[in-house]
Write a structure and sequence with these properties.
It is elongated and about 125 Å long. The longest helix is centred in the middle third of the chain and has 69 residues, at 112-180. The chain contains twelve helices and twelve strands. With 390 residues, it is of the alpha+beta class. It has three domains: 3-110, Beta-Lactamase (2-Layer Sandwich), CATH 3.30.450; 122-226, Helix Hairpins (Orthogonal Bundle); 235-383, Heat Shock Protein 90. It is 51% helix and 17% strand.
Length: 390
């Protein structure tokens, strides 16, 4: 790697560092250290030899491993101590496994708040990966269940229709026989088997059974739509279809606590990753449901404003305290009781919407309810630039 490219990469990854070659000579450093020419010849760690520093270093092969590398509290020379402060910690890492053409020693200077920030960031990454893996596993399971149920439901639906035709024919046959036989012979038999009631109730039973089968088919279709875990590309999608699909999935969570009102505007298709957008909608709807104790109302609105679309999820639940509003999208922050929330739902939603070049807004009044607004561009900027170039 050329020296200029190496320094650019190191400046991008690290705030305060020195990079030394195998002989201990300085190759490059962060901009804030480059301005202190007086320290160029002053030893950094007067109590340690070069060989001891190399022996203390750790090889890393990823940025995650770098964040996990041990931080040492080493004695600095007076000049370096005045520059970096007494609370500075040091990571000593070899980058050759991370960057094969970087065979020297990286000395990263960190302060305690940064160390804590690295730890939190790593924890967030691990939790998000676990959440993503869990959602992928649930999606695969849902897709498999939907596929397995789809086949038997298909022939149950078909057989139910055939059975209805057969029963109608039998009823017509009985009625024709009754017309051609003496009434005094037919009526006792019909009365004995309660024919009039069976004939009337039969149609109701068929209609209810068909309605149940169609409901199962809708749930299967929603599961298949929701579980597209392999989707990673932006495509044009119907926002309203995603909302209704997500409602089908979360309906069992909502129906005992609140009614849902839909206020849809006429929208064009939006360039998005549908499965990820469905996840955001699911998080917002579940949160709205949890904010309601009983007899609530959840309103979902859509509208278009210039080149943007807005999705609103509003509830009349218990609302959010003003002091919590600025922390809603922070990882692990939750207002739910212990064991009922991970604090990752809104953080993950914020990350997804940011990836879509959009934003999430929230208004809330305690004891009155909350309203979350998701703003999405109709087209992703990269697509618009590509279209203009073509």
């Amino acid at each position: 790697m050329e020296a200029q490219a190496l320094q650019y990469w190191l400046n991008f990854c690290f705030d305060c560092y020195l990079y030394l070659d195998r002989d201990g000579q300085r190759l490059c450093c962060s901009p804030d250290l480059a301005t202190d020419s007086e320290l160029a010849d002053e030893p950094i760690f007067p109590e340690l030899s070069w060989q001891q520093l190399c022996a203390m270093s750790e090889p890393v092969s990823s940025y995650t491993e770098l964040c996990q590398a041990q931080a040492h509290r080493l004695a600095l020379s007076s000049g370096w101590q005045s520059l970096l402060g007494e609370q500075s910690l040091v990571r000593l890492v070899m980058l050759e496994h991370l960057k094969p053409d970087c065979s020297g020693l990286l000395i990263q200077f960190i302060r305690q708040p940064q160390l804590e920030s690295d730890s939190v960031q790593l924890q967030v990454m691990q939790q998000q990966l676990m959440q993503a893996d869990k959602m992928a596993a649930i999606g695969q399971l849902a897709a498999g269940v939907a596929h397995e149920i789809n086949n038997p439901i298909g022939y149950v639906s078909s057989n139910l229709q055939t059975l209805a035709d057969y029963c109608h024919q039998l009823i017509r046959l009985i009625e024709q026989l009754a017309e051609n036989l003496p009434e005094e012979q037919v009526q006792p038999v019909l009365h004995q088997h309660d024919f009039d009631f069976v004939r009337d109730d039969f149609q109701t039973l068929l209609e209810e059974s068909d309605e149940g089968i169609q409901r199962v088919i809708e749930i299967i279709r929603a599961l298949k739509d929701f579980s597209h875990t392999d989707e990673g590309n932006f495509v044009l999608a119907d926002i309203h279809h995603g909302i209704t699909t997500t409602l089908s999935i979360v309906n069992n969570e909502i129906k005992y606590k609140a009614s849902v009102e839909l206020d849809f505007a006429s929208l064009p298709e939006v360039e998005c990753i549908p499965s990820q957008l469905n996840q955001v909608l699911l998080n917002l709807l579940v949160n709205a449901c949890h904010a309601i104790e009983r007899d609530g109302v959840i309103v979902i609105r859509t509208r278009q404003q210039a080149d943007w679309v807005c999705i609103e999820v509003q509830d009349n639940g218990k609302g959010i305290a003003a002091e919590h509003l600025n922390h809603l999208f922070e990882p692990f922050f939750t207002t739910k009781p212990v064991g009922q929330g991970t604090g990752l739902g809104l953080a993950l939603s914020h990350s997804i919407i940011s990836k879509h070049q959009g934003r999430i807004e929230v208004d809330s009044v305690p004891a009155e309810g909350s309203c979350f607004r998701v703003w999405l561009p109709l087209r992703q900027p990269d697509s618009e630039q590509q279209a203009a170039a073509d």
